[in-house]
Amino acid sequence: MSRVPGQRPTGPLTLRQLVDEPSLGLAVAEPGDLSTVVRGAHSIEIEDAARWLRPGWIMLTTGLRFLERPQDEAPQALLVDQLVDAGAAALLFGIGVHFDEVPAGLREAARERRLPLLTVSAGTPFAAVEEFVNRGTLSSEIYLLRRTVWLQNDLLKALSATDPATALVTRLATLSKGAAVLYETSGRIIASTGHGPLRLIWEEIAAREAAPQRFSVGRWAVASRPFLLRGAGFRLAIASRSGPLIDDLGPDLLETAERVLAAANAVRDLTMNQERAEAARLVSALQAGVPASRIRQTWDRLRPFRFRVGGELRVIAASPLAPWRVSVDPRRPSDALLEEAHLEGLGLILSEQDEPDPLGSPLTAVLADGPAADGWLTLLSGTHLTGVSGPFADLTVAPQYFREALTALRVATRRHAVGASTRIVRLDEVDFATWLLTRRDDAQVAARFDRHFGALVRAGGLAETVIMYLACQQDVKKTAERLFVHPNTVRYRLHKVEQQMGAPITAAGVVANLYLAFQDEILALS
Predict the structure, then answer these.
(1) Which of 58, 53, 52 is nearest to 37 (CA)?
(2) What pLDDT does 516 receive?
(3) Which of 31, 88, 167, 187 could form an SS bridge with 161, CB 3.0 to 4.6 Å?
(4) Which residue ranges does the record assign to the Purine catabolism PurC-like domain (predicted)?
(5) In terms of DSSP bridges, do strands 57-61 and 90-94 run parallel, antiparallel, or are they unpaired?
């Protein structure tokens, strides 16, 4: 199909398109690489021409500088060297003005340096060439802009997907006509599609500096780009058997994809922040007490958090075992807990306080009771001491279950302080003695404890022996084995205790008092 003179196809302007344009009357003297993209054109007849050119530009000349010594090839070769060093796209020589043909030295130098050399006929003003190039490069920029917008619009469709990362990688593979993959910095593949050599691509990426890269793996052309999201590093790569396609589209695709992933992450963060705020408000409302008139409205607010109307709930109070360190994990401490609940379909609202009041806990949550709750509580107890209330479904009585959870957390904290391995205390599962002890006033108990058992605690290993004796179900032999002493030593120490207590160690009252006084220590050894 023929085209109208002066009109060129869309896309970057190349030397081939200039030669093919009949209105310009150009001819090829030395071809070099005619696929070279042209960024601009400038007519220059003065010395040191290269300083006036930008990379990708073409220089037009009539050879005026060579007129006095047309046979001297040195200045002709020097001009070619300067143009090549400056990244010029080509040299256009106007014939029929000072020279009827291109000087031999100029042609020879262009051939050796592979600089495209074209001739401009006498009937073509240089201004016409410059105008055509300038219009062409402007059209090229418009084309590139349109292409970029199209790529962005296509990739932005991934934002509406349930899994934006996977959807984006799938689109990248389609656009690159090959494979696409998203790696973590460890090399773990987060999402991939296509049949490229993904493991070999990662090995090549890992061996290079963390910067945009272009390389080959066998017959595959690969482009990769590193980026950060929420403090974590990732590598995005596309691979195709078409090297020119990767060279042309690769940088735009990867840069646009990074922005889409950043946008998806921002949308996700915004959504999560909104959900966190609403969850915190719901926790506060339940803790303060829900009047009967607002029960239905409160259940409606709980429903988006995967709660079933009328289902049983538990309150959780938790305190971290160690300070959260950003260098270890850039995520907020509760992120993993929220993600686990989402994956398991577990109803959960959570409130986190950086500086809780003396009667509060750093993390307070309400979760739906059921099998999925056990796994979530196990995850929580990996990093937190955890107190769990009994189950309830009546929202009007929620405040008392918040107090239960806080009481259970205090029990867990006391037991952890004396070496207990368990990190979860469920108040509805504790024995009567434990429940009874939760009702005590610790300040009064401390004074009473010192009056009754202070001498025992201060008497060498007597308290240790009594605690182990009760932990071993009052078995003297087992007590001696765990203390690494002779059974007669245990009996002797217990006799000393009996003297202090004024009653046999096996008496029900003595056992009850000692068990209640040292329950946390006994349970830590059981």
Answers:
(1) 58
(2) 74
(3) 167
(4) 20-133
(5) parallel
